[in-house]
Specification:
Layout: E1 2-4, E2 10-12, H1 62-72, H2 85-117, E3 129-130, H3 136-150, H4 156-167, H5 178-207, H6 212-220, H7 234-249, E4 260-264, H8 286-296, E5 306-311, H9 314-328, E6 333-336, H10 346-354, E7 360-363, E8 379-382, H11 384-388, E9 390-394, E10 410-415, H12 424-437, E11 438-446, E12 458-467, E13 475-483
Parallel strand pairs: 4-5, 4-10, 5-9, 10-11
Antiparallel strand pairs: 1-2, 2-3, 6-8, 7-8, 11-13, 12-13
Helix pairs in contact: 1-12, 2-5, 3-4, 5-6, 7-8
């Protein structure tokens, strides 16, 4: 978390990204699992080229969205008032381009997270507190980052940031451009500080809303115009397993009933959004975590699960495709699972210890650097057949439709920390599109509150409160929606 104290000190607090106000005793009076106060959250992608590529999918038909648009009425933007097909297609295509363009801002946020907390390019201490942007440690870290960008070697994160800076008009290899690049980095650090304090104020304002619905609505779209993050964390998957167990215990999910699953925005670790870890290779977790949970809970059978990973990040999709290609050659996919010293609840610790038990075998973990002394680590080598069960697909679930030639619908769809980056209209459109992907009776699980409308054939069935920390308000609420 970045905050400015009363005496003007800028403080960076390494805290879990999922920290939230947790009210498990108030049915339907829920507080969203927002990633509030996280310094420099990551989006590992770059802005999509303006031209349409082979993976770009058609905009959802006007007939599909018309009931939702008419129901939203005065909440619609001016361009969509009295909607028709031409207005819809023009607006939706423009908004899809805008959303994909916001990925670049997320990449610059990622750069700041790496600058402050990364250990792969510097021996300087991690920045927790600084009095101003001219803090000597910060300046040294910037210099070390620039040196790393000039000579990145095989460091995937530095290679990625070189491309980000070049797209922003910087030349990391030029000695004459060194000062320009340094100024650019520091300007983005200042921007992140200012933005995080603004988000904090907005979050506090939302908590003072007298109407609970208004409070939830404000929090649910707080990041609607910021750089989009597709980062990932094991704790989101722990929350999903808790919800699946809860639903099974309530007989809402029969044994071995799930065969087709979609994960929206699975993400990819660039620098861990809570603590900035960058000592292990890039990886994704959620598609394989869901497979692991479904087998452990008896909700699916091994070898009989098909998972589709919907994402708009080329790098996320290419990462999954690369893992898929290696799996065809019989290669395992190894994931690193660091666990910080924060006091996780016993159930979360047990989940961390058992992660991967149904999909792979323990592997030797990458050892953290001295700067992360005391960090507990483990690793899992995920079997090739599990990797091959996951198909990556480029899809903006708010505006785009999937190939209608595949008539099979999903039993289960999962999206965590995705829809808080959208406004009310876009959230409703996403829920409508998700309804077209689910089979009747199928479930959608998310930790983001969404606005339900009678025109959308999705019913809110309840939620599972999931606590991550032993004390305080660190946790999630996983909402259940069922296709009618």
């Amino acid at each position: 978390m970045i905050r400015i104290t009363s005496d003007g000190v800028i403080r960076f607090e390494c805290m879990p990204a999922q920290k939230m106000k947790f009210r498990s005793q108030r049915p339907l009076r829920l507080v969203l699992a927002l990633m509030v106060g996280v310094a420099g959250v990551w989006l590992f992608t770059h802005c999509r080229d303006k031209q349409t590529d082979a993976g770009h999918r058609p905009i959802i038909s006007f007939a599909t969205v018309k009931p939702v648009l008419e129901a939203l009425g005065d909440k619609l933007p001016p361009q969509l008032r009295e909607p028709n097909e031409a207005k819809w297609k023009t607006w939706a295509q423009h908004e899809d381009d805008v959303v994909r363009g916001r990925l670049e801002q997320g990449a610059l946020d990622s750069m700041i997270n790496l600058l402050l907390f990364g250990t792969s390019f510097t021996t300087q201490p991690r920045v927790i507190t600084m009095h101003d942007l001219h803090d000597p440690v910060v300046q040294s870290r910037v210099d070390d980052l620039l040196q790393g960008l000039r000579n990145p070697g095989r460091n995937e994160r530095l290679i990625f940031l070189r491309n980000v800076l070049r797209r922003s008009g910087m030349d990391p290899d030029s000695s004459t451009g060194d000062e320009k690049t340094k100024t650019f980095v520091l300007e983005n650090l200042r921007r992140v500080v200012q933005e995080q304090n603004t988000f904090r104020e907005q979050f506090d304002e939302a908590t003072h809303e007298s109407d609970q619905q208004a409070e939830l609505s404000k929090r649910s779209r707080m990041f609607h115009d910021r750089g989009i993050s597709l980062d990932t964390t094991i704790l989101s998957s722990f929350g999903i397993e808790g919800a699946l167990r809860d639903m099974k215990d309530r007989a809402m999910l029969p044994v071995r009933s799930i065969t087709r699953v979609a994960v929206i925005g699975p993400g990819l670790d660039f620098t861990d959004k809570g603590f900035g870890y960058d000592f292990y290779p890039l990886q994704t977790l959620q598609p394989f975590a869901v497979y692991d949970s479904l087998i452990r809970l008896g909700l699916a059978e091994p070898g009989k699960i098909d998972i589709t990973a919907f994402d708009i990040s080329r790098e996320v999709l290419e990462h999954l495709r690369s893992a898929h290609d290696r799996a065809k050659a019989g290669e395992n996919y190894v994931v690193q699972l660091p666990r910080e010293s924060w006091p996780w609840v016993a159930e979360a610790v047990q989940y961390w210890r058992s992660f991967g038990s149904e999909i792979g075998e323990p592997a030797a973990p990458v050892q953290p650097p001295p700067a992360l002394k005391g960090l507990e680590t483990r690793a899992v080598a995920i079997r090739p057949d599990v990797i091959l069960s996951c198909k990556p697909v480029d899809l903006n679930v708010v505006f785009e439709q999937v190939d209608r030639s595949d008539t099979r619908r999903f039993d289960l769809i999962i999206a965590t920390n995705v829809f808080l980056y959208y406004d009310t209209v876009e959230q409703a459109l996403a829920l409508q599109n998700i309804s077209t992907l689910l089979k009747p009776g199928g479930f959608f699980l998310t930790n983001d509150w969404l606005p339900g409308l009678p025109q959308i054939p999705m019913r809110s069935m309840g939620y599972t409160p999931v606590r991550y920390g032993e004390s305080g308000d660190w946790g999630d609420n996983i909402f259940w929606w069922q296709r009618q």
